[in-house]
Amino acid sequence: MSEVSSVPGTGMIIDGKALASELEAETKERVGELVALGRRPGLATIIVGENPASAMYVRIKHSACDRVGIRSENVNLHEDAGIEEIIETIRGLNEREDVNGILLQLPLPGNRDSAPAMAAIDPAKDVDGFHPVNMGSLLAGAERLVPCTPKGIVWALERLGVSLEGRETVIVGHSNVVGKPLAAMMLNRNATVSVCHVFTRNLAAHTRNAEVLVVAAGVPGLIKRDMVKPGAYVFDVGINRVEGKTVGDVEFDEVLKVAAAVTPVPGGVGPLTVSMLMSQTATATEMQEQINNR
């Protein structure tokens, strides 16, 4: 299946599912090599409470584990579990040799501060890439395990043959999950990077310069056709529910008429994020295997 599909008279639709399948195939091969060495990768997820969306996301991740041969398990803690109990659970998983990756599903109930729990994860098992050690390595230009969504975007651009070196890139959104780590990854590849957000004055003046535009603001329809440079590559990370439909931050049909390529929502960045989580679980296992063999 092609990674991009054309619609007559428009730009290209970046097929996130096809790209994700390619990455999963590569990860499955790596997992097979690890299994041959007697080391099957294992991913442990932790859910606090009974959030239906969190449960759905974890099921999607476990299904991906099954496809690539990664062993998966889930630890479900009760709604009122304190941060001490969450940290104690994480520490137990840190000690297990059959667990190579640990993922704490966010948000925590009541939007409780997750930072202490995230910092308790062994950086070598932090497949979500949010531990301060891994974030620091990213900023220092020594990428280890990094956040999966920005890593998936960078991987997709490379797979599509789009070099970031010297390219004008604009990121709309400055979260710790997407905007900030993606800016660092692009700078590490010598892109010229501007980071904007919903409070940026005259946002269009910035986005019109972008050869690569990534939008992760959580505002449906924020990016209009006249805000996009002709020939740009546009990655829409937004996931919004509008009138019973899931839509992104980009006016997809209109932007597709001027851009070189655009990711749809759904079916664009989402599958890349999940497949990158699988890849990073394999990477974490490989890193741990190297340490054990020293």
Helix and strand topology:
Blueprint: E1 4-6, E2 12-14, H1 16-36, E3 42-48, H2 52-68, E4 71-77, H3 83-95, E5 101-104, H4 115-120, H5 132-139, H6 148-159, E6 168-172, H7 179-188, E7 192-196, H8 203-207, E8 212-215, E9 233-236, E10 240-242, E11 245-247, H9 252-255, E12 261-262, H10 269-292
Parallel strand pairs: 2-12, 3-4, 3-5, 6-7, 6-8, 8-9, 9-12
Antiparallel strand pairs: 1-2, 10-11
Summarize the structure.
Homodimer. By secondary structure, the protein is of the alpha/beta class. The protein contains ten helices and twelve strands.
Q: Explain this structure to me?
A:
The chain has 294 residues and is α/β, with parallel strands linked by helices. The chain has two domains: 38-122, Leucine Dehydrogenase, chain A, domain 1 (Rossmann fold), CATH 3.40.50; 147-270, Rossmann fold, CATH 3.40.50. Helix content is 41%, strand content 17%. The protein has ten helices and twelve strands. The chain has helices at 16-36, 52-68, 83-95, 115-120, 132-139, 148-159, 179-188, 203-207, 252-255, 269-292, and strands spanning 4-6, 12-14, 42-48, 71-77, 101-104, 168-172, 192-196, 212-215, 233-236, 240-242, 245-247, 261-262. A seven-stranded mixed beta sheet has the order 1-2-12-9-8-6-7. Strands 4-3-5 form a three-stranded parallel beta sheet, with helices on both faces. Helix 1 (16-36) runs parallel beside helix 10. The longest helix is centred in the last third of the chain and has 24 residues, at 269-292. It is globular and about 55 Å long. The N and C termini lie far apart (41 Å).
